Amino acid sequence: MEKIIRQLTQSKRILVVSHSSPDGDAIGSLLALGLSLSVLNKDLTFYNESQIPAVYRFLPHTDRIVQQIDNVSIYDTAVVLDCADMERIGNMAPRVALIPAIINIDHHVTNSGFGHFCLIDTEACATAEIVYRLITAMNIPIDTAIATCIYTGILTDTGSFRFSNTNRATFEICRQMTDLGVSTYQVAQHVYGTYSMGRIRLLNRALDSIEISKDGKISLMTLTNNMLEETGTHPEDIDGFINYAKRIEDVKVAVLIQENGNGRQHVSLRSDGSVDVADIASSFGGGGHRTAAGFSIEASTATLKKELLARIQV
Ligand code: 5GP
Ligand code: MN
């Protein structure tokens, strides 16, 4: 922490970046840290490869997040947030890797330990929690905008305080963020309260696609590009659907297979804790947490299902 604070204080031009296809923690952490460092009058770029999902555009200053960086050589420091490995940044990863000082801030058990400075806490419920600790250690005042970003990161990564990563610190930090003026109802309304009609129709298709293994312990949900096209939705609209597959009585592991175009599929895995899905995702080249993990792969849906059922031992 001290080394990172020294590095950030000495830096002039900082790139703050989080993983592509960002979730609430990736965006919340990026904005919270970026807005905090702005106080120190640094030359900052907030970068994410992907467009910000509509449900997170209410967050303050999302317009500061750019989807393109032209010249990486201008930065002396990069802060990489919520990424288990550099590749999670996306296509720019090899160029970001050239920045002289790389700070890796994350909470995934599968974090590769990349970069020159690591602040990894696998007990943290969200990367936003670690960002909160860093900002606090730097004595940077947390205003309502920063607090809203931290709160949203924690809210979404704990599945609204339902997942097993929810703990005392979760509530303690969220209580402080509420004291700092976060409108918890407004955040909930933006993140969970409003679905487009297309998204409801897509959910209908997703629920319809659920298959259960013979022993009832594994559920599989499959989403195709066709379903997105027919409902006029985007990949971001799938966020959270896997929880329906996981909720089913007796199910220990839920799988969501999502067609990514050009033959690639993204697979999400969730477990009730009895199976380590980070291990399974790692065996396919991905990563994550014990109870929530994922990977991307080039394979047919049928082969993938067979391979997954063989590797998930419940
Ligand atoms: P999701 O299933 O929501 O995409 O991701 C669940 C968890 O697995 C997240 O913590 C995410 O960071 C991780 N994850 C998802 N996809 C990948 C991947 O392709 N590589 C790695 N290393 N982690 C992933
Ligand atoms: Mn996270």
Topology of this structure?
Layout: H1 2-10, E1 13-18, H2 24-38, E2 43-47, E3 65-66, E4 77-81, H3 93-96, E5 101-106, E6 117-120, H4 127-137, H5 144-157, H6 168-179, H7 184-193, H8 197-208, E7 211-212, E8 218-223, H9 225-231, H10 242-247, E9 253-261, E10 264-271, H11 277-283, E11 287-288, E12 292-298, H12 301-311
Parallel strand pairs: 1-2, 1-4, 2-3, 4-5, 5-6, 8-9
Antiparallel strand pairs: 7-8, 9-10, 10-12, 11-12
Helix pairs in contact: 2-4, 2-5, 4-5, 5-6
Residues 84-85, 88, 108, 110, 268, 286-289, 292-296 line the site of guanosine-5'-monophosphate.
- In whole angstroms, the N-to-C terminal distance is 39 Å
Shape: globular
* pLDDT < 50 stretches: none
Instruction: Enumerate the strands of the largest sheet in spatial order, edge to edge or round the barrel.
Output: 3-2-1-4-5-6
The profile of the biggest β sheet is: 6 strands, parallel
Helix content: 25-40%
Percentage of residues in strands: 15-25%
**Arithmetic mean of pLDDT:** 97
Give a summary of the structure in a few sentences:
The chain is built from twelve helices and twelve strands. The chain has helices spanning 2-10, 24-38, 93-96, 127-137, 144-157, 168-179, 184-193, 197-208, 225-231, 242-247, 277-283, 301-311, and strands at 13-18, 43-47, 65-66, 77-81, 101-106, 117-120, 211-212, 218-223, 253-261, 264-271, 287-288, 292-298. The strands form two sheets. A six-stranded parallel sheet has the order 3-2-1-4-5-6.
